Amino acid sequence: xxxxxxxxxxxxxEVVIGLEVHAQVTSNAKLFSGASAAYxxxxxxxxxxxxxxxxGMLPVPNRECIRQAVRTGMAINAQINKWSxxxxxxxxxxxxxxxxxxxxxxxxxxxxGEIEVILDEKDANSPRKTIGIERIHVEQDAGxxxxxxxxxxxxxxxxxxxxxxxEIVSRPxxxxxxxxxxxxxxxxxxxxxxxxxxxxxxxxxxxxxVNVSVRKPGEEFGTRTETKxxxxxxxxxxxxxxxxxRQVDLIEDGGTVVQETRLFDPxxxxxxxxxSKEDAHDYRYFxxxxxxxxxxxxxxxxxCRASLPELPDAKRARxxxxxxxxxxxxxxxxxxxxxxxxxxxxxxxxxxxxxxxWLLSELFGALNRLGKSLxxxxxNPKQAAELLGLxxxxxxxxxxxxxxxxxMLETGQGAAAIVEEKGLKQTSDTGAIExxxxxxIAANEDKVAEYxxxxxKLFGFFVGQTMKAMGGKANPxxxxxxxxxxLDQ
Amino acid sequence: MLAATTGLLAIRTTRNxxxxxxxxxxxxxKLSRIAISDEEAEKMVGELNGILAWVEQLxxxxxxxxxxxxxxxxxxxxxxxxxxxxxDVRERVLANAPxxxxxxxxxxxxxx
Lengths: 489, 112
Hints:
The complex is a heterodimer of chains A (about 500) and B (about 110).
Chain A: E1 6-8, E2 11-24, H1 63-75, E3 83-84, E4 87-90, E5 100-103, E6 113-118, E7 128-140, E8 144-146, E9 153-157, E10 164-170, H2 177-194, E11 206-215, E12 225-230, H3 233-252, E13 261-265, E14 270-275, E15 286-287, E16 294-295, H4 298-306, H5 312-321, H6 326-334, H7 336-347, H8 352-370, H9 381-392, H10 398-411, H11 415-422, H12 430-443, H13 445-452, H14 459-469, H15 476-488
Parallel strand pairs in A: 12-13
Antiparallel strand pairs in A: 1-2, 2-10, 2-11, 3-16, 4-5, 4-15, 6-7, 7-10, 8-9, 11-12, 13-14
Helix pairs in contact in A: 1-4, 2-3, 5-6, 6-7, 7-9, 9-10, 12-14, 12-15, 14-15
Chain B: H1 2-14, H2 22-31, H3 38-56, H4 90-94, E1 100-101, E2 104-108
Antiparallel strand pairs in B: 1-2
Helix pairs in contact in B: 1-2
């Protein structure tokens, strides 16, 4: 892939991108209270007096949220800090009843790590790039404001208030919208494998603050802007594109980029300044006196490590070693759901190559047609294994298996039962096949002559005719052998 | 006021030690969303500088190489199990709301 450059009137510009991804930790209860962290719910019902910041309420951290942050850190090969601390980030806003967010500025729980991204995962030769991760810290989410319900008032729902977030801060290592997109995709995949975040961007479980600056290639970093709360991979890429363009035009027009917070408008495809108040970033962080330092012991860390699943990169390498194509291995491992489904298939002793080809072409094709996701698949791995087993042991042919699969999708019946009921078993009955071949040769004398005079390609025609005459049930190997014998005499 | 005074402490390290002026007091007041009059600001300068001078006495103790103390008795941060044990107390949560709209808190519109 050629380098991403923005054409300006003064020459080419390079974009420099860093991302802060906020990922909601998968947990039952909130970070510092026993209220439910579930999405939805009646307004202000998933709220305890701690979350509403009533006087005298004290935060007690949820072990699972800490554990998931540590496991995530381990999954990106990051340094885990056995000693970390919570700080207060002070600001006033109606969605933050405490008047401060409990976060970790000075001593985050996870230090430096990295992830490798592949720009085009379907291409085995696609460039790979390592993106540095500076830190992961845990912090509280804020409540939700609604502005359109009343002419002079905003409504506040504190259900999200206090839900645990991981803030995953990358290094400014990305140089194109595509790299940033691949990074978010890979990060989301890792989070889903680990089980620390569901990665659901529509429900806001994952959102990104996008830091963008531009420079002439090789020069020092320019001043960056931060575009807040971008909630899809496509929007991340679009926001970078339009913000970099805006900065280039601004600089070339004689202006200066101001370090500020901006907002992406996907309808107008532009970013806009959010707050320009000089004091906006004066958060006056200080250690939260309500919380002792967080100290993790070896047993805790060991459990975190032991409970990590095989991660996408390792899985992909293992699949390739099994003989799968690089493409199949990449597609099977990109999403945790696909990988887990395939693992279940392998557990049923399905041949990896046969299983992967079937999953990616037949099953994905059918789900696409039905508009269903893999989780909603009408056929489970065990049922699929039954079908593939019938092909593997020669009971049915590959083409018949497609027919059987269609019936499975419609009726939910088992493959063996369908084959039995519809009489779809493959036949190697040479007498029956020979009889059909004789009829076909008699009916196509001209083609037989052409074939015998050297038009080899016609062999396929005879195979097709024979299979058709046999209702698709003839063993293809036997058909080939008998046809050769009949035609070559 | 804890947040506000601690904010002052942070500022102290970056500005001239041990003193705040009226501008600083006004800035802290604004960040803390506390309305103060000019006379009050004037008075606060004296009070806060008094507090800072008092806290500054700690600087007389040489504590280089001493770990910050986080608890008076040896103690560890306790963690909670991931179980829903609280919430569903909307009436109590909203009981003291200055304005309530249905199940929501009502606040002056905060969007431009």
